[in-house]
Amino acid sequence: MFDINTLLRKNIKNLTPYSSARDEFQGEASVFLDANENAFGSPLPTAYNRYPDPMQHAIKLRLKEIKGLPVRNIFVGNGSDEAIDILFRSFCNPGVDNVIIVPPTYGMYQVSANINDVETKKVVLTEEYQLDLNGIAEAIDEHTKLIFICSPNNPTGNSINREDVETLLANFKGIVVVDEAYINFSRQKSFIQELTEYANLVVMQTLSKAWGLAGLRVGMAFASEEIIEVMNRVKPPYNVNEASQQLALQALQNVGQVNDWIKETLAQRDKLVLTLKDMPFVLDIYPSDANFILVKTTDATGIYNYLVDKGIIVRNRTNVELCEGCLRITVGTPGENTTLIETLQQYK
Ligand SMILES: Cc1ncc(COP(=O)(O)O)c(C=O)c1O
User: Do 199 and 284 belong to one domain?
Assistant: First the structure.
């Protein structure tokens, strides 16, 4: 059975979090002389002289409506990258514990592990870019705290088989993190619905992709109340700044606009695939549930350098395991995609 107390680092179990001025006072007041702010204002058209809400209540109330989850199950971070780091800092003892990652996958799991001095056990995906469940079962030991699954997966674009993730959730005594950064583009449904079923599930999402707010740095983690409580204790007090909170809240009213862009992105993705697949240097295009495609080519580095020369930047993934010869191409606007295609048509 899942028991958070056996997973938590001892120093975190005993941690008294920083208590900010605004944490200590709740209620009505008109004079705030408690946080050493500049009471006059900001040298800007908008005033940012007050510290932001440490718990981002307004955003969480809106997320509650959109995601159908109680506020106590929602963590908001400075990008989902912050949530990844906080999971390491909460659960993994440096130099002792380990996590499982399943390459090729999102690079920050490894970087965060390195920063936190936590070993990663790598269980490479199958040729179909699916989980090697036997490999994962063999890799798990008494010090394995987290398993990171990215679905839809970056950089391959495919969704991970749902039953395989459920097998892990049902059998692993640590935490299974399902990173759904690209879920808005996917045909698969989110794992958020499974939170009531699995106490060891953390679902991560972000406003950086479909929501078009990468510059604001707002990410979310959804999990049991006890996991969210730990993450809130470990996070820096004011981890999401006031401008980001206000703008994210405003953007979260605009679901219609985002849904239109998702539809357009998917239509553009299909068009891009149809055109690219007939190009002489394209060997394969992998099925995508995301806003990018992984394209296997005869010469990834040659094409990459050619495109850079023309002012077009894609991601060269040829040095990544199971991605030899591959470029990862983000779906752009119709104009950008046309420029890409016309430029590639000139490639010799
Ligand atoms: C799978 C995945 N997770 C998380 C992130 C980072 O998200 P955020 O911008 O919220 O930190 C990315 C960004 O590329 C990503 O591809």
Answer: no
Indicate if 225 and 134 belong to the same structural domain. Answer: yes
Could you read off the pLDDT of 261-303 as tens digits, one per residue?
999 999 999 999 999 999 999 999 999 999 999 999 999 999 9
Q: Is 180 in the pocket of ligand 1 (CB under 6 A)?
A: no
Taking the centre of ligand 1 as the mean of its atom positions, its distance from the CA of residue 82, in whole angstroms, is 10
Q: Within a domain: residue 7?
A: no
Output the pLDDT for position 178.
98
| Ligand 1 close to Cβ of residue 292 (< 6 A) | no
With beta carbons less than 8 A apart as the criterion, state whether 132 and 166 touch: no
275 with 129, same domain?
Answer: no
Provide the token pair at 189: 């449904």
> Residue 293, Cβ neighbours under 10 Å: how many?
23
What is the distance in A from the centroid of ligand 1 to the CA of 198? 23
Inter-residue contact 118 to 94 (CB < 8 Å)? yes
Which residue among 233, 253, 273 closes a domain? Answer: 253
Q: Is residue 85 part of a domain?
A: yes
Tokens 């606007």 belong to 333
Among 208, 239, 289, 320, residue to substitute to test ligand 1 (most atoms within 8 Å of Cβ): 208
Instruction: Tokens for 28, please give them.
Output: 């009505």
pLDDT of residue 304: 98
Q: What are the strands of the beta sheet with 282-285, ordered from one edge?
A: 282-285, 292-297, 326-330, 315-316
CB 220 within 8 A of CB 63: yes
Instruction: Kindly state the tokens that stand for 59.
Output: 């955003």
Q: Is the domain of 249 the same as that of 278?
A: no
